[in-house]
Amino acid sequence: MTRKVIALEFVVPTALAVALGFALSFGAVYLTDHYLFPADPFEADFPIVRSQ
Predict the structure, then answer these.
(1) Confidence (pTM)
(2) Residue 26: which of 16, 37, 15, 34 has the closest Cα?
């Protein structure tokens, strides 16, 4: 096997798989933080008006 064939059959798919794994993991963390859980669970959804 030549070096070019080895690179095309093993190195390139491995690099793509690693890049896809990083992209999916960072995307999952981003989506979980922004859409599933509130940033501050004790934060009010409305402004509190104080009467004096």
Answers:
(1) 0.58
(2) 34
Specify the 3-state DSSP secondary structure of 48. coil
Distance CA 19, CA 16 (A): 5
If you write DSSP's letter for every residue of 13-44 in order, what string do you get? Answer: HHHHHHHHHHHHHHHHHHHIIIIIS-S-TT--
Query: CA–CA separation, 24 vs 30, rounded Å?
Result: 10
User: What is the per-residue pLDDT across 20-34, written as a single tens digit (0 to 9) for each?
Assistant: 999 999 999 888 877
- The Cα–Cα gap between 29 and 33 comes to 6
